[in-house]
């Protein structure tokens, strides 16, 4: 049974890579998708205020604290409480996030989608992020953390705030003008897929 489970996880991971590498490249080449992305970003940019910008910059910058703090907290709690399950969950959550980071870096290198402000020099972001645009690394890592944590602890009071935080981070990347909506969507796929792919670590 365990071999069958691993087989399906491998198939899912392979499909995830196909989606991440193949589909976005063809979609970006289509004008309607690009126009949709740009229209959303322009609408969000038009609604910026100093208060909202400060808030979403804070949310965007919070991602490493959740990605590192959650597995670290689980591990420390497991050590202090002599809870092997909690330590195992720490490994699972941490591994999911690390895998999402690795996949995101690889996909960025292959796809090399320009940032919105690079493609359109008239578009003004809140700040100028480096590297390529697809997929959103902030989104992929936070959704990996949120998904893995929700699988490890399937309670509404864990699931709701986890995905609220991850969703807010993804939205902040669009609001700040450093990622297209399809970049964020790609990050969600990579992040959630990474959590599913490392499920074998959760015993």
From TrEMBL:
Lineage: Bacteria, Pseudomonadati, Bacteroidota, Sphingobacteriia, Sphingobacteriales
Protein known as: Phosphoesterase PA-phosphatase related protein
Source species: Mucilaginibacter paludis DSM 18603
SUPFAM superfamilies: Acid phosphatase/Vanadium-dependent haloperoxidase
CDD domains from the UniProt entry: PAP2_like_2
Domain Phosphatidic acid phosphatase type 2/haloperoxidase: 90-199
């Amino acid at each position: 049974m365990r071999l069958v489970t691993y087989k399906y996880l491998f198939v899912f991971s392979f499909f995830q890579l196909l989606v991440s590498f193949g589909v976005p490249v063809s979609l970006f080449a289509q004008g309607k998708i690009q126009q949709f992305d740009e229209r959303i970003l322009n609408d969000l940019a038009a609604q910026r205020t100093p208060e909202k910008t400060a808030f979403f910059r804070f949310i965007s910058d919070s991602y490493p604290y959740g990605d590192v703090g959650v597995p670290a907290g689980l591990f420390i709690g497991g050590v202090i409480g002599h809870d092997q399950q909690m330590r195992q969950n720490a490994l699972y959550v941490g591994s999911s996030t690390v895998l999402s980071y690795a996949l995101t870096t690889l996909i960025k290198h292959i796809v090399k989608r320009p940032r919105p402000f690079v493609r359109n020099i008239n578009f003004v972001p809140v700040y100028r992020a480096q590297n390529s645009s697809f997929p959103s690394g902030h989104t992929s890592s936070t959704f990996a953390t949120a998904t893995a944590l929700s699988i490890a602890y399937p309670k509404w009071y864990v699931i709701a705030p986890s995905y609220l935080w991850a969703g807010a981070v993804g939205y902040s990347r669009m609001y700040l003008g450093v990622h297209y909506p399809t970049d964020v969507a790609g990050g969600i796929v990579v992040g959630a897929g990474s959590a599913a792919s490392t499920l074998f670590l959760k015993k």
